[in-house]
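Bench notes, bay 3.
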Amino acid sequence: MRTVRRAIEFLLTRVLKSRLGVALGIGVLVLGVIGAARLVSGPVDPSAGLSNRPERPITTVDPEAGDDGVIATAAPPSPVTRPGAAKPEKVAERFVGVWLGGRGKTSDEWLATIRPLATPALAEKMAGADPAGVPAGRTTGPTTLRLRTESFVEALVPLDSGQLRLELVAPEGRWLVDVVDWERA
């Protein structure tokens, strides 16, 4: 009897208070929880495989509600221009004329003619650019607009050696070129 009592005391005082005892206790607890969960969940269907995916897709949107994606199917709103200010297509055409007409001018002279048609950010990016580096000489067709929002428009201009894409913005109804992108033909 004394031996059993000493064994219980040893177990309670030394083993359970040590790291090994704590780890064993946690292991027994985890196995008990897993075993209980399996008993409660019922039998496993081996034909279901490793996944419990539904047979049909789960839809979170009513399929009859319409498209809420990034690309809208409705016509974009017309650009809004402040009274007396130039429309975006006119600003784009003037910008292209100035951009192409820089040959023979200094960088500062060329930038001075571009600045009234460009955002301050674009004018800053173009500072120091050489007008002789413009890769085209003339337009070859009309400017095409892609309406995005009331204050954002893309203008595509065909040129003799490629296509110029301008992004125009109108934060206060006055259209200015914000981005110049060149694509060689």
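Next record in the batch:
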Amino acid sequence: MGHHGWQGNPPHTEDDARLRIIAATRSCVEKFGAAKTTVSVVATELGVTRQTVYRYYPSHSELLEAVAQAGLADFVRRMTAHLATFDSAADVAIESIVWSIEEIPREPSIGLLLQAGETEVFSRDVTTSMSFSIGADILRDIPVDWSEIGVKDDELEGLAEMLMRLFVSFLQYPADPPYSADDIRALVRRWLGPALHS
């Protein structure tokens, strides 16, 4: 679009364009909310056409996924810091589920897919081998001696998978009447806790 698009300041590279689209999407979510942040709204924010946005992100859900990925590092950092305040394997496992259930729906990047009603896309993204690998890295960074309870380093990815599948289930299919955070803690501690004690 030359100087007529991008508010007169076109990106110099494809990566620059993608970063600017992601930044504009986050800005629109802050201003209008996830449900009202359409591709048209993002395009207007950038001063480009919808077709320009679609060139980089062929669907609305792919755009939201890109925003979630961009916010992943900060989310991982905050989750790791929270879990590092617990000193037992069982507490880390339980709190990883409860913290995720409470934080993700209101998280400005990771929670976008849920806020926009893209629950199936969210579930698919969370239950990938890459997500399980990231989860295992979080568990490795926590000051807990996993070997003390018989969990080998190469098994942490399996543990991360179980924890993620549990939190997705609680998140997408809440109890009726709803469980409190303490209800979830008690349930997970009763049934998962014994497996995580030495």
